[in-house]
Design a protein that fits this description.
alpha+beta; 4-stranded antiparallel β-sheet
């Protein structure tokens, strides 16, 4: 009996350990840290997927451009019946069965089953083929940088949204703390009223304040849910359960050596190369094109049994005589596209400088706000303690107690807001400097 109970106890412990570990694993799976969100958004956000598809399209365009260097082989076949003198004459001639008997002006119904195999190869295209491949290659590289830029922008937006969730959560805690404090003050006021030490208006004022605090808690909780849903939508998560992990993740101040340039600039520079190739394509219209061709033909008659084979090969040179104004217009458009990209690069470089400066100033402001908020919390807490003591002694009004509570709650909100703004400023500065918002594990990239 003892052994059975011991075995049963051991089994229960094993099951309990398993359930605890399973629940813990489930909680970890459903809990979203900043690292997990940053890794997830790169491949699951709609904007990231769209940029990835555009990259795949650019790769296909490069493959298409490269095929212009390959010879083109086409085959065709068809059946025709006619009593047209010219067509009947040609059918019989190609079928190797033309005779000079009969009336050529009134031929019998003649048919033909024709098949052809044609090979074409462009020898020279005025540089259009080379420029086309160059343009497609530059477009592919630009699309790759565009994809990197979209992912980096999403990382920044995820960091902002994540810290807004944490900020909302801290505000909920501040509202709950204020509600609890107001309830304690209400209980104290009721005791003092029963002891005839305060007026009933003090109880009514605090009772009203408790109701307001309860409404504030509900509102702040809803704001936290909204912030969480915004983060969920941003990263492209379609699951039902979405919970942001507890704890405050701090980002690393950017002290790394900055190398290279932002992907936005690299993408534009490759777009400039693509536009330059577009100018070459437009200019190729001024030059002649040279192509080689060869074809093999078979002609078979069904009404008049007979067939014939033939082949032809040669070189064709084509030069546009008219349409020069159209060509010049295309060149002017391509050159304008190139100039536009140069201005876009200049604009992007100025915007990056502005982003860096703004992030630095916001970071300094947030740091000072944190210091001031911490001092304000200390002062507000002391003021509340003093006001509560005076209220107990009957020498402070309920309105003064409410004001002291409000001041402490406001100080807590300011501190949480300043902390969130500081982390957002660090994320913005890292982004502006071309650094990742947060270094991710290898399996998260």
């Amino acid at each position: 009996m003892i052994k059975t109970e011991s075995a049963l106890a051991g089994l229960c412990c094993t099951v309990a350990v398993f359930l605890c570990s399973s629940m813990s694993a489930f909680a970890d799976e459903e809990s979203w840290t900043l690292t997990r969100a940053l890794g997830y958004v790169k491949t699951n956000a709609p904007d990231a997927r769209i940029a990835k598809l555009r990259f795949e399209k650019a790769r296909a365009q490069l493959d298409e451009a490269r095929t212009t260097w390959l010879p083109k082989l086409t085959a065709e076949t068809g059946y025709s019946v006619t009593d047209n003198p010219t067509q009947a004459f040609m059918f019989l001639l190609n079928q190797r069965q033309l005779t000079f008997g009969g009336d050529f002006n009134n031929p019998l119904v003649t048919d033909n089953w024709g098949s052809a195999l044609r090979l074409e190869y462009p020898i020279y295209s005025g540089g259009a083929r080379t420029a086309g491949v160059k343009a497609a290659d530059a477009g592919l590289v630009a699309s790759e940088f565009d994809l990197a830029a979209v992912r980096r922008q999403l990382e920044l937006e995820v960091a902002r949204s994540y810290y807004q969730v944490l900020r909302a959560r801290e505000i909920v805690k501040a509202a709950q703390a204020a509600l609890q404090s107001h309830r304690s003050n209400l209980q104290l006021a009721r005791k003092l009223f029963e002891a005839d030490r305060v007026l009933e208006t003090a109880v009514l004022d605090l009772d009203t304040r408790v109701a307001q605090a309860e409404a504030t808690v509900v509102a702040t909780r809803n704001q936290e849910k909204i912030a969480s849903e915004m983060l969920k939508t941003l990263i492209g998560y379609d699951g039902k359960n979405f919970t942001v992990a507890q704890g405050w993740t701090s980002l690393k101040f950017p002290t790394e050596i900055i190398g290279g340039s932002r992907p936005e600039i690299s993408a534009l520079r490759n777009r400039a190369e693509q536009a330059e190739a577009g100018i070459d394509i437009a200019k190729a219209d001024r030059k002649p094109t040279v192509a080689a061709f060869a074809s093999s033909n078979n002609y078979t008659g069904l009404t008049n049994s007979g067939s014939g084979n033939s082949w032809i090969a040669g070189v064709m040179i084509r030069l546009k005589i008219t349409g020069r104004r159209e060509t010049e217009a295309k060149i002017a458009q391509a050159e304008a596209d190139r100039a536009v990209i140069d201005e876009q690069i200049r604009k992007q470089e100025q915007q990056i400088k502005f982003q860096v400066k703004t992030a630095e100033l916001n970071l300094k402001t947030a740091g000072k706000r944190i210091i001031l908020a911490q001092k304000g919390m200390t002062s507000a807490q002391k003021s509340l303690d003093l006001t509560r003591s005076r209220f107990k002694e009957g020498i402070a009004l309920s309105s003064q107690l409410i004001d002291a509570e409000t001041a402490l709650t406001s100080a807590r909100v300011r501190l949480s807001s300043a902390r969130a703004e500081e982390q957002i400023a660090i994320a913005s500065l890292r982004h502006a400097l071309g650094l990742p918002v947060k270094s991710l594990p290898i399996d998260s990239k």
